[in-house]
Design a protein that fits this description.
mainly alpha
């Protein structure tokens, strides 16, 4: 037995030459007669291409504007949620501070009547504070939701007008 094996001849680049591919394909040597395209067909094709380019440009612009509107809406939502969280934490701190102050004052009462009066005053104050905080949060949430939706709504209105006019 011999350790040498037969190999296919290699071309100048060092790759194996495939048998039969040295000559060009005969199937591609078809001669086609020259045909002149009528001007009407060229005009139709030109109009179709230019119309497609215009439609693509409009679609691209609309997509970019929509993306920008969603980014604006997202940023408004993010900043609004951060502000809402801060307001909620401030409200919780206000209630916690009031509760600790009430507990401190409650430990100093000397009679049952004083304890009842202190409890009633604390409950009334907490109810007033909670009512005011609820109004503030409601107004903030309304403004926040309106502001968050505005960029998307304006972008959609602009896109619809552009497609109606174009």
């Amino acid at each position: 037995m011999s350790d040498t094996t037969a190999t296919a001849p290699k071309n100048a680049k060092g790759t194996k030459a495939a048998k039969g591919f040295d000559a060009p394909f005969e199937a591609f040597n078809i001669s086609m007669p020259s045909v002149e395209m009528p001007a009407v067909f060229r005009d139709i094709a030109d109009k179709a291409v230019s119309g497609s380019k215009e439609a693509y440009a409009k679609l691209k612009t609309a997509a970019e504007e929509t993306t920008e509107a969603f980014e604006d809406s997202y940023e408004t939502t993010r900043s609004g949620l951060v502000a809402l969280t801060h307001k909620s934490l401030d409200n919780a701190k206000t209630h916690t501070d009031a509760t600790y102050a009430f507990a401190r004052d409650f430990m100093a009462v000397t009679s049952f009547a004083e304890a009842v009066e202190l409890q009633a005053a604390f409950a009334r104050k907490q109810f007033e504070t909670l009512t005011e905080q609820s109004r503030e949060l409601q107004a903030f949430a309304q403004k926040f939701s309106t502001d968050a939706v505005r960029p998307v709504r304006q972008g959609a209105e602009k896109a619809f007008k552009a497609f109606q006019n174009g």
